[in-house]
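[Discussion] Sanity-checking designs against the backbone

I'm trying to build intuition for which residues belong where. Below is a structure token string of 159 positions. I'd appreciate it if someone posts a full sequence so I can compare it with mine line by line.
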């Protein structure tokens, strides 16, 4: 099993999969700006993503606590920052909409590029499974801060 996970084909498949996921997120986010924002639409992504913590049941996925803290902090402070800075809302006919930012697509693509580059570097030092764990924690920190920001901004504009 470890030979399969360490093969270049698996890593290529993973990279292509990550790129396809990023493109799908980009398309969904751009389409979502045409519909009103609701609290449910803000809180569901981090709640859904939280189910990913079940991966840590598998011992090979576990990482040291310091890695968890560093990855979460990197997601919270660094990777979420551009998303927070480009997320704006507007009220149209009493409903709240996300303003479409011209730089949003470029930011998502840039975050993906940085993530993939870091993934290749980190993967040289730790196992593929642990790399997945580190980047899951990083992504969770990023989305959690971004969605908490969206929630507070949504509540402020709603009143």
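Best answer:
Here's mine. Compare freely.
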């Amino acid at each position: 099993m470890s030979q399969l996970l360490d093969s270049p084909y698996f890593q290529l498949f993973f990279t292509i999969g990550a790129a396809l996921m990023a493109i799908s997120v980009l398309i969904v986010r751009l389409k979502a700006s045409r519909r009103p924002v609701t609290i449910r639409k803000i809180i569901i992504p981090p709640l859904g993503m939280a189910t990913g913590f079940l991966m840590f049941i598998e011992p090979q996925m576990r990482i040291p606590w310091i890695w968890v803290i560093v990855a979460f902090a990197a997601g919270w402070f660094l990777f979420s920052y551009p998303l927070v800075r480009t997320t704006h809302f507007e009220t149209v006919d009493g409903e709240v909409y996300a303003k479409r930012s011209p730089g949003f697509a470029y930011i998502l693509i840039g975050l993906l590029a940085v993530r993939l580059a870091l993934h290749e570097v980190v993967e040289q030092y730790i196992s593929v499974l642990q790399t997945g764990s580190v980047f899951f924690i990083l992504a969770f920190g990023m989305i959690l801060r971004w969605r908490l920001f969206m929630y507070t901004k949504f509540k402020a504009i709603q009143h």
